[in-house]
Specification:
The protein is globular and about 65 Å long. The chain has one helix and ten strands, in the order H-E-E-E-E-E-E-E-E-E-E. Helices cover 4% and strands 47% of the residues. It has 180 residues and is mainly beta. A hairpin with a 7-residue loop joins strand 9 (148-159) and strand 10. A ten-stranded antiparallel barrel has the order 1-2-3-4-5-6-7-8-9-10.
Length: 180
């Protein structure tokens, strides 16, 4: 029977280089400025629809999965709920959002920041859009005071004639809740 060689720990230590080259740690997968472009919407918000004097809903927006997903949980005082998932698609270089409401309303939109810093997403930018279908466009406008985002306006519009005329589906002012 052949015998196994015996190695001493000092022999192994002598053969291992004492200073191994170190590789730079890559940044987290979703840390680019493009991935962070919609972070202005993160927070807990009281939502007041246009024409109302007081909030009628709460919207909780959080970063999930290492900042790769922005999750929305929406709830009105009347019990309507909905949620969305938004993410930056680096391969296509645009943002996507999928919305689903408790009433079965689904919305698939895509787009990005415009030159004014507004996030503008539309179903015409979504790969599954069928030409001639109604156009939906949602714009989130951050409102800053002293460099801090104090509120966000969300304006959802729809067009049945390819964008010639627009109807407001929802227009809400999101006021960020402050922690006590």
């Amino acid at each position: 029977m052949a015998s196994s060689p015996i190695f001493s720990s000092s022999a192994i230590a002598q053969s291992t280089p004492s200073t191994a080259p170190t590789a730079k740690t890559p940044p987290p997968p979703c840390a680019s400025a493009d991935h962070r472009a919609f972070d202005f919407w993160i927070g807990i918000w009281d939502v007041t629809p246009a024409g109302k004097d007081a909030p009628t809903a709460i919207n909780s927006i959080s970063a999930q999965h290492g900042g790769c997903v922005i999750r929305e949980e929406y709830q009105t005082q009347g019990g309507y709920t909905g949620m969305s998932m938004s993410f930056y698609d680096a391969a296509r270089k645009n943002w996507h959002q999928t919305w689903m409401g408790a009433d079965g309303t689904a919305l698939f939109i895509a787009g990005g920041l415009n030159d004014r810093g507004e996030m503008v997403l539309s179903n015409t930018n979504w790969p599954g859009y069928v030409k001639g279908s109604p156009v939906n466009r949602v714009t989130w406008t951050p409102n800053r005071k002293d460099g801090t985002i104090e509120s966000v306006r969300q304006h959802w519009q729809s067009s049945a004639d390819g964008g010639q005329n627009w109807t407001t589906v929802f227009d809400g002012l999101y006021i960020k809740r402050t922690e006590n």
